């Protein structure tokens, strides 16, 4: 059975992984006959109250929070190597742009969590497929833009697209239910909740993306 890594960044759209996107990704992986390998970095995050969208001032652990989505079956990303996986997918949520990297703050000049950067570069070097959803393609652009100049999408947001282009990557506009494939670099991306107004819209794009990632293995 093919193993597809799912890199989580917490639990909740405002400070971690977007839960709908993460669960839809896990479901699509299973429906495509593959095994999901959930992982996250062992680090702290700034908690956001999801009722008010305001910071609480509290801190939480990214790995522990991500374990909520993974039902406890999760690995520290520091222990995962490209050799353990056939592909990897990054769901969105602000955690992808705040915890896995600081794109939300720094844009094109973002720095990447060391273990996330390491795994991404290992996967790219091994020519193993990489998928990214919602804002997570910005992480891919920041990590791989200078070396690989990948084609990615976050939908149609002009400001985010410009920041992605500034990394050396190429942003491609894309509707919510579709996806963009960079065949040369084996990178598949979809807008999901960057554009989605309904969970069914996000689901359609994610289903297609996961199927495309599996097809590139």
Descriptive notes:
The structure is a single chain. By secondary structure, this protein is an alpha/beta fold. It has a single domain (3-216), classed as Rossmann fold. 37% of the residues lie in helices and 21% in strands. The protein contains 8 helices and 11 strands. The chain has a 7-stranded mixed β-sheet, with helices on both faces. It has a two-stranded antiparallel sheet with strand order 3-4. It has a two-stranded parallel sheet with strand order 8-9. A hairpin with a 4-residue loop joins β3 (44-49) and β4 (54-61). α1 (19-31) packs across α8 (199-216) and α6 packs parallel to α7. It is globular and about 45 Å long.
Q: Which helices and strands appear, and what pairs or packs with what?
A:
Elements: E1 3-7, H1 19-31, E2 35-40, E3 44-49, E4 54-61, H2 62-69, E5 75-76, E6 87-90, H3 94-98, H4 103-106, H5 114-125, E7 130-133, H6 136-148, E8 151-152, H7 158-165, E9 170-171, E10 180-182, E11 187-190, H8 199-216
Parallel strand pairs: 1-2, 1-6, 2-5, 6-7, 7-11, 8-9
Antiparallel strand pairs: 3-4, 10-11
Helix pairs in contact: 1-8, 6-7
**Mean of residue pLDDT values:** 97
Strand line-up across the major sheet: 5-2-1-6-7-11-10
Number of strands: 11
What is the level-2 CATH architecture name?
Answer: 3-Layer(aba) Sandwich
Q: Please, how many helices?
A: 8
Number of domains: 1
Q: What gap, in angstroms, lies between the N and C termini?
A: 12 Å
């Amino acid at each position: 059975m093919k193993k597809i890594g799912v890199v989580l960044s917490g639990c909740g759209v405002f400070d971690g992984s977007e839960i709908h996107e993460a669960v839809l990704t896990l479901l699509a992986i299973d429906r495509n006959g593959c095994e999901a390998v959930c992982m996250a970095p062992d680090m702290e995050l700034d908690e956001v109250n999801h009722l008010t969208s305001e910071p609480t001032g509290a801190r939480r652990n990214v790995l522990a929070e991500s374990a909520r989505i993974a039902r406890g079956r999760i690995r520290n990303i520091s222990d995962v190597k490209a050799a353990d996986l056939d592909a990897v997918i990054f769901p969105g949520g602000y955690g992808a742009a705040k915890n896995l990297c600081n794109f939300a703050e720094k844009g094109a000049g973002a720095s990447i969590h060391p273990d996330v950067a390491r795994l991404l570069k290992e996967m790219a070097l091994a020519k193993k497929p990489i998928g990214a959803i919602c804002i997570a393609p910005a992480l891919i652009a920041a990590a791989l833009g200078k070396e690989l100049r990948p084609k990615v999408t976050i939908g149609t947001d002009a400001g985010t697209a410009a920041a992605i282009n500034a990394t050396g990557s190429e942003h491609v506009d894309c509707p919510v239910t579709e996806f963009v494939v960079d065949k040369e670099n084996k990178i598949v991306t979809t807008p999901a909740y960057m554009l989605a107004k309904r969970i069914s819209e996000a689901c359609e794009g994610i289903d297609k993306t996961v199927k495309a990632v599996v097809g590139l293995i």
